[in-house]
Each structure stands twice: as structure tokens, then as C-alpha cells.
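A reminder before we start the practical. When you read a complex entry, don't treat the lines as separate problems. The point of joint prediction is that each chain is placed relative to the others, so the output describes one connected object in space. Small molecules and nucleic acid strands, if listed, are placed in the same frame. In the example below there are two entries. Take a minute to note the order of the lines before looking further.
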Amino acid sequence: MPQAETVNFGHLEYDDHAVIEFPRGLPAFENERRFVIIEQDSTRPIVFLQSLSRPDLSFMALPANSVDPGYKLMPASEDLEDLGLAADREPCEGKDVVTLALVTVWDNRDATANLMAPVVVNVATRHAFQVVQPWSGYSHQHRLGACRPGTAEQAAAL
Amino acid sequence: MLIIRRRVGESILIGEDIEVQITEITGNRIKIGISAPSHVLILRKEIRLAEQENLAAARGVSPEAVHLLLQHFRSP
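Here is the predicted structure of the whole assembly.
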């Protein structure tokens, strides 16, 4: 089984099936092309993306429809082409694609999810792109309520 | 912010070295030609936003961050 050393997950053994390939990397990380998807029962629905080229690089992500249940992907035709998806129909979530929003946890405000530029994975090819959709009307910082430092203590006290 | 109206074919000059020309308008989309020295960065704004978000997202991963994020799904 392939293995990798990681800062956040220690020594990792993974299935080739769990590797996703970003042909263009991600904005600000254009050279990082290979990531492994990590899901754990204890941390669902969070999906972790661990870089296989940089042990210190990982992202937290959420399925876009767990952030916004009505979430609708609005790719341009070039995006569908990049992803290797049919141009004439909407990709089916869960079957054709998995759509994830990368999450940022902040020091002094609620965590946010980037719904404007989701990571879209082609299920069949395991190729992925971060699809930047400024026309979608979604926010690059969609607020996830109750994720502010301090609220954990408040919730525990209830 | 300076707001200027232009028609197709008209241009705007920025500094000594930059020209922005409106080359085509179709419906609600506009085609813009930009000439600038190669050292000047030209970037669609949403790409810069995506870069900044990705950098912040990558910086923030930790067990504490995971715990915090799960609050969103656990709390009433």
C-alpha cells in the first residue's frame, strides 16, 4: 500500500483509489497536483485533502450540499471540458462528480466555506479542478455559524 | 474608484505603460484587451480571492480547528 508522511495525519497508508489528481494544482498551490482524500467516522462530514507532495499541506473541506443543501454547480463550458464531463447536461452530484467547499477556520470569527470556487472531482477519472465561478452568486466566505473560537465552551456549558 | 463609460473600440490609459481597450460587448459579457509590460500582474479578481482563501484555509488546519468546525454540525 502506498505510504506518505504527513504533519497532520502522521504516517499515512492509502489506497490508490483515494488519490485525486489536480492537473492544474489549486490557486496559490499550482505545483501541488496529487492529494489523498481522508474521511474518518469521528469527523464526518469533514473531508480532508492531504497533499502527497507536501507533508505540511492539507485542507479541510465539506460537501458543498452539506454547507448549502440547495447548492448548484454552475460550471462554464470550459470547466466541463477540463473536467471531462458532457457539455450538454448537468453533472450529477455523487455519480459524475463530488463537489467540495474548502473551509477556512479563523481566529476571531466563524469558519467559512468557499462556495464560489468549489473543488469538483470527476468520480470516474479522479481528476479534480477548483472551479472558480464568480457569476454563481455564491460567496468565497460562506459563514458556518457556531464555529467561532469560544462557542465550543458555550455549547458544552448548555 | 474612478467610473468611466466606454464604447466598443475605446480605450483607457493607466500610468505610462498600460492600456485597457474594450474590444467586444455581447449581452452581459465584455471582452477587454490589456497591454502592459510583462512585469505587471494582470489577474481576474476571483482568482486572487481563491488564492487568498486557499492560503488561509491551508494555514488553519489543526486538531483544534477540526473540533471547532464540527461544532457547526453538532450544535443545536
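Discuss with your neighbour: Residues 3-143 of chain A form a domain with the BH3618-like fold (CATH 2.30.290.10). What might explain this?
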